[in-house]
């Protein structure tokens, strides 16, 4: 693969701010092959690129904006006179060079998804200062009123930048292939704590004028911009080990911390597999329920949904997943979003290996078997073109990038043996550390460093078939769980008419419940649904995974008693994975269910992150 590495080109071709030259001696490379072209950014990084972002912002909870300035360090070809950034609704006051001289700038035509190009005339400047604020409806920022927090006393702010939403509050080149270092100074009202996805230089903050407090952060490693993350609220911290801990609202901390006490064991397991953890700390932040994802792998500070905490550690595989991203995703990153399986497929495989070391072979088998179930679901529900690993821009197929990607890697492991495969993966992460990657680049590396010209192995693995063609190749490895096989027997008993109370479900964990509820016939009579609901307390389950799966089944049968459960559940949970299927099930019921979905969403949308609002709007109006 051909790279453009500015530090290795002659200084006659490139210029950089002299004071930064030593620090930028080895910027992360920019991939220039056609498959690395990112159509979701306006940037032209081969001409001028951002290498460092320094934020100096204040949080205004009344106006729901972040306000201040961003200083960008620029690396550009000699003679380059402009840089193109990504802008999604930023309110720009002025742009200057480092000495305060005004620079000319323009914002181009806006696209609903991508935002607009922000073009700055550089002249000879290689450091620019953008004075700006975000808008109240910035798509990356979730501003929560006190009523949507655990404490009910103070508002809360959190960001979710993946995939291309950070351009709504950070003016930079918002592409995963343009890695940047960053630093930040964040001013908040007194009584609030700010945390970010970098080294926390002032954990307690510094008192500043006006009864406010300032927190400073630094990320010295170049990261894709979507990993710049922030949260501000009433937060407390509990250490879990020498390099891990958890932030949460004080009212939540005591409940969630015990389920995270295996975190240090997970870090040790991950390092044993694929090399040193390179990010310093692995802390976690448990967010309010409106967070749209299970977790987000922000470096040094993974964001987690409270829905994973069900009292039985059944869902800590989410923690293993976000930890694994510290290698696959954060260390080696997909260069463009059609290559997203390089992040998620690798991570889902790696997560399972961590689970095996920490919790045993059968636990890992349960999770792998559930992953297989989800893969089969997505293959059935998706159009063929969306079931390739390397998808076309705009394609989406549920969790397929996660589960088909993991199955591909598991299939390679079975073919070459675990020892050989692990050695390859560890060397792969080392070779491409802090760099972007494409599918073609991974396959080239696989052929060079694992297959090594072995035609028989190439034919056995079918790598091009896996990544570029739809469906599932015939060599796919399906790991089967003995635990879930027992659940399958319970399902058969239900089909034979056995009462729900006789099924022995009392010790089931989340995955057993998922297998059972998702495996039941999609058409069941009302009396059967009532028996299941009464015996298993499904409509009132505190386990969000169980509630979601039950509601999909019940709504699919127009089981009216489940509507009250949906009305209670959907407004208080913002996780896409759990609520989107319920909305989809309601919409699928046409005139019976769609009005219910629209009514619930009308009251709930203010509780959701903008990412979730957009996702549910697409469910309600797919043709819009």
Question: What would the average pLDDT be, to the nearest integer?
Answer: 93
CATH superfamily of the largest domain: tricorn interacting facor f3 domain
The residue fraction in helices comes out at 25-40%
> What is the CATH T-level topology of the largest domain?
Immunoglobulin-like
The number of domains? 3
Could you name the CATH class of the largest domain? Mainly Beta
Strand content: 15-25%
The Rg value, from CA coordinates, equals 25 Å
Q: Outline the biggest β-sheet.
A: 9 strands, mixed
Structural class: alpha+beta
- Count of DSSP-assigned helices: 18
The outline comes out as: globular
How many strands in all?
A: 25
Unreliable spans are 1-25
Assign the CATH architecture of the largest domain.
Sandwich
| Termini separation | 40 Å
Can you tell me about this structure?
The chain has 624 residues and is of the alpha+beta class. It is built from 18 helices and 25 strands. The strands form six sheets. Strands 2, 4, 5, 7, 10, 13, 15, 16 and 17 form a nine-stranded mixed beta sheet that branches. Strands 19-20-21-23-22 form a five-stranded mixed beta sheet. The longest helix has 21 residues, at 361-381. The two termini are 40 Å apart. Mean pLDDT is 93; it is low at 1-25.
């Amino acid at each position: 693969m051909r790279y453009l590495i500015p530090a290795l080109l002659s200084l006659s071709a490139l210029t950089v701010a002299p004071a930064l030259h030593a620090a930028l001696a080895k910027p992360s490379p920019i991939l220039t092959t056609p498959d690395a072209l990112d159509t979701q950014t306006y940037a032209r990084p081969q001409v001028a690129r951002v290498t460092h972002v320094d934020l100096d912002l204040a949080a205004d909870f009344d106006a729901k904006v972040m306000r201040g300035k961003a200083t960008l360090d620029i690396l550009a070809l000699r003679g380059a006179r402009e840089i193109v950034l990504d802008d999604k609704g930023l309110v720009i006051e002025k742009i200057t060079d480092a000495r305060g001289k005004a620079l000319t700038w323009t914002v181009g035509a806006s696209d609903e998804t991508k935002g607009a190009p922000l073009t700055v005339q550089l002249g000879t400047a290689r450091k620019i200062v953008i004075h700006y604020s975000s808008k109240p409806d910035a798509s990356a920022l979730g501003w929560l009123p006190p009523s949507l927090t655990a404490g009910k006393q103070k508002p809360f702010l959190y960001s979710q930048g993946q995939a291309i939403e950070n351009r709504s509050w950070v003016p930079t080149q918002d592409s995963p292939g343009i890695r940047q270092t960053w630093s930040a100074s964040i001013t908040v009202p007194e009584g609030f704590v700010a945390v970010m996805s970098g080294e926390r230089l002032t954990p307690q903050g510094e008192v500043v004028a006006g009864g406010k407090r300032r927190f400073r952060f630094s990320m010295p490693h170049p990261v894709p911009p979507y990993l710049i993350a922030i949260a501000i609220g009433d937060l407390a911290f509990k250490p879990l080990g020498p390099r891990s801990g958890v932030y949460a609202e004080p009212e939540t901390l005591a409940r969630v911390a015990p389920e995270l006490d295996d975190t240090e064991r997970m870090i040790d397991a991950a390092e044993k597999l694929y090399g040193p953890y390179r990010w310093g700390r692995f802390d976690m932040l448990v967010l309010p329920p409106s967070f749209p994802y299970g977790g987000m792998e922000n470096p040094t500070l993974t964001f987690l949904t409270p829905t994973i905490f069900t009292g039985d550690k059944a869902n800590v595989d989410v923690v293993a997943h976000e930890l694994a991203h510290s290698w696959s995703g954060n260390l080696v990153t997909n260069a463009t979003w059609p290559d997203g399986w390089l992040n998620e497929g690798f991570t889902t495989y790696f997560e399972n290996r961590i689970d095996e070391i920490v919790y045993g072979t059968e636990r890992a088998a349960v999770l792998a078997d559930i992953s297989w179930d989800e893969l089969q679901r997505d293959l059935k529900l998706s159009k063929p073109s969306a079931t390739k690993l390397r998808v076309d821009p705009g394609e989406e197929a549920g969790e397929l990038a996660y589960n088909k990607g993991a199955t591909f890697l598991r299939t390679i492991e079975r073919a070459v043996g675990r020892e050989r495969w692990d050695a390859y993966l560890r060397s792969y992460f080392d070779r491409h550390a802090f760099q972007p990657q494409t599918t073609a680049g991974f396959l080239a590396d696989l052929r060079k460093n694992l297959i090594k010209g072995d035609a028989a192995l190439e034919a056995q693995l079918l790598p091009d078939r896996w990544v570029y063609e739809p469906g599932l190749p015939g060599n796919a490895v399906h790991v089967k769980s003995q635990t879930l096989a027992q659940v399958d027997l319970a399902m058969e008993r239900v089909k034979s008419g056995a009462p729900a109370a006789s099924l022995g479900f009392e010790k089931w964990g989340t995955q057993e419940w998922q297998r059972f509820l998702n495996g039941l016939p999609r058409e069941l009579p009302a009396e059967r649904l009532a028996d299941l609901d009464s015996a298993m307390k499904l409509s009132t389950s505190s386990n969000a995974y169980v509630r979601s799966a039950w509601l999909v089944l019940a709504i699919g049968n127009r089981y009216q008693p489940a509507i009250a459960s949906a009305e209670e559940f959907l407004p208080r949970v913002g996780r896409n994975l759990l609520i989107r299927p319920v909305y989809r099930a309601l919409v699928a019921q046409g005139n019976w269910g769609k009005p219910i979905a629209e009514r619930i969403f009308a009251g709930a949308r203010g509780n959701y992150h903008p990412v979730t609002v957009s996702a549910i709007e697409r469910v309600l109006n797919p043709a819009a």
